[in-house]
Structures are given as C-alpha cells and as structure tokens.
Write a structure and sequence with these properties.
Blueprint lengths: L2 H20 L8 H18 L6 E3 L9 E3 L2 E8 L5 E6 L11 E8 L5 E6 H4 E6 L3 E6 L6 H4 L4 H5 L3 H13 L26 E2 L5 H14 L14 H11 L1 E2 L21 H8 L1 H10 L2 H8 L8 H12 L15
Parallel strand pairs: 3-5, 9-10
Antiparallel strand pairs: 1-2, 2-3, 4-8, 5-6, 7-8
Helix pairs in contact: 1-2, 7-8, 7-10
C-alpha cells in the first residue's frame, strides 16, 4: 500500500470515528478505549476496501507508535478537553517499532464538539516540552512543525544518536530564551559553571514523613521503577521528578525504593515490593491529588482519577519481570 492510499483510508476512518463520537457511541471515554476503537475502525476500513494489509497493535504495550499497518504506524492521541494539543512521545523513541517506516497520528478530541483528525506525525509536532525527559508536543490545529523550525527532516532526526538529538533540541531551546534565561538543565557540560536556580534540599536530610510522601508521588508517576533490579536507570525519572518538581536532590537513586532502609527490617527478597507496600496508601493519595497534567507528562496519556491505580498496575506489570505488582499491591481496591 502506498502512502497516498493509506492517507485516503485515514480520511474515511476519521470521518467514521467523528460520527460515532458525535452520536454518543461507546469507545471514546478514555485513551485506552479510544485506541481499541481506532484499531477496530482501521481493521474495518482495510477489510471493506479489500486491501491486502492488516492492522494490529505494536510489538509491546509501550512501543511507539501504538498501531502497525504493514509498514505504516499510527500513534493514537486522545483528550477529554476541547483542545487539539497533547503531550507526545519521547524524542529518543527508545521503543520504536522499526517496522513503521512512516508514522501518522489519529487524534480524538472529546471535549466540546467531539471530532477525530489525522496528520502525518512530523507535521503535527510543534514543540519539545522538557521536565523529567524531552517529549514532543502534538498540535493538530497549528501549522508550525518543529522540524521545519529546526531545519531538519523528521526521518533524519529520528535516526540520530541521543547526543545529536539533544544538540538540536538545545539550539532550538536557546533560540526561544528570553533575556536573562539560561538552559541550566541541558547545557553542554564544558560550559556548565553554575548551580541550579532553585533551593535544593538533600533527600537524606528530610524527615521520614516527607520522604514517604515524595516517594509515593515519584512511584505513582513512574511505574518503570518495577523494572528488573539490573535495569539501568530505572529510578532516574523518579529522582528527576523530585529534583525538578520539589527541589529535592537524591544522589543515590536506589535510596528511594530498593535500599534496606526503605524496605523494612526484613532482609532479602523483593526490597522494592516491600518499599511500595509501605507507601500504598500514600500512593493512593498521590493518584487522587496530583495534577492531571503530570500523568499526561509522565505516562504519556490521560487517565481519570478513579482509574489511575488500576492503570498504574497495568503499566507496572508490563515492566516487571518474574513478579506482577498487581498480585501484591492495592489488593483491597480503591
């Protein structure tokens, strides 16, 4: 199937999705349901058109893009707001499905008058947002592609090393600085000579109640902490959350979850599990109280408050190996 044929198919798919959403049909309430609905719509359109292709989910729940159609990829975005803006994927695309040679976005806007649209991925990326990690920003109603601004083709950018990608992001971000601002968070090492522009506290110096509260926030936003013990950097995003959000510096990231000091007096076994069991109630509080935008930022998707614990368990189960967090945590329900 050629790109123009696939794009014609997408035209019909978003029309049918828009009509279904406007009619109040099921399958549009949240991002997970919408992804299933989009997959079913693609499969139906392919079958109806007699096209020798098939649509399916990508090889891993966290792979990019979400769906695969014989060399084409579809990333699914969903919002309950009346907005065509969403936080996109990591610029590094560490879990990219390499079978997707060309990527498209299908975006479902359920706020206001419901509607679905599609776009070429490179055409609807308009900005890079940086907190714990650089992520693209998707805007379906703005004609100012990031890659045109950076004067580089998306296909060339995506094949670059992480270091080369960050070079382009630094230059882009520097050009957006206002007078007196400086990119302390991603300057080249050789020119860094100043401290963070905020009051920083050491994690080890906090009171125990504070440590537990902040560990719970970091844990609920970063289910990847459940990766195997030898997985490199699994606590990095949790530590960066504490630094960028609360000004708390933790030089030894294992102190957050897997050190004996946070797992109780018992020795051996699954230290991380015991540490999480100790803060389950605080994680529930964090799931209820943290801003919805944080979940979009860290999970890459919207999630209703009453579904956050269940969704966290699903994501954590996907990361864990030799154990399932859902079999040990939050067993008494919400």
């Amino acid at each position: 199937m050629k790109p123009e044929q696939f794009e014609a198919l997408l035209d019909g798919v978003v029309i049918s999705l828009s009509r279904a959403a406007q009619s109040g049909e099921e399958g549009f309430a949240n991002s997970k349901d919408f992804e299933k609905t989009v997959l079913a719509a693609l499969q139906a359109a392919i079958k109806q058109g007699g096209i020798a292709s098939d649509a399916d989910r990508s090889w891993h729940p966290h792979a990019f893009p979400d769906l695969s159609v014989n060399g084409f990829g579809v990333e699914v975005k969903h919002t309950t707001k009346d907005s065509w803006l969403a936080v996109g994927n990591s610029i590094f695309e560490g879990m990219r499905d390499e079978s997707a040679q060309k990527v498209y976005v299908i975006f479902g806007k359920m706020g206001g008058w419901p509607e679905a649209r599609w776009a070429r991925y490179e055409d609807c990326i308009t900005h890079v947002r940086i907190s714990h990690a650089p992520r693209f920003v998707v805007e379906m109603d703005r004609e100012s592609p990031l890659f045109s601004v950076m004067d580089i083709a998306y296909d060339d950018f995506r094949r670059m090393s992480p270091e080369d990608k960050m070079h382009h992001i630094r230059e882009y971000s520097r050009n957006r600085l206002r007078p007196g601002e400086r990119l302390w968070w991603l300057e080249d090492r050789e020119i860094q000579s100043h401290a963070l522009p905020m009051q920083v506290r050491l994690y080890m110096a906090l009171e125990q109640d504070e440590k537990r509260k902040y560990r719970a926030e970091a844990a609920i936003l970063n289910p990847q902490i459940c990766k195997p013990s030898r997985a490199r950097g699994k606590y990095n995003d949790a530590a960066l959350y504490l630094l960028t959000r609360h000004g708390i510096f933790c030089p030894q990231t294992r102190d957050l979850f897997s050190a004996g000091s946070v797992a109780g007096k018992e020795r051996g076994g699954n230290y991380l599990l015991r540490a999480l069991q100790d803060i389950q109630d605080l994680m529930r509080n964090a799931a209820r109280e943290l801003d919805a935008e944080l979940f979009v930022e860290y999970w890459g998707e919207e999630c209703p408050v009453d579904q956050r614990i269940a969704r966290w368990l699903e994501i954590a189960d996907g990361y864990a190996k030799d154990w399932y967090p859902s079999e040990h945590l939050f067993l008494d329900g919400e």
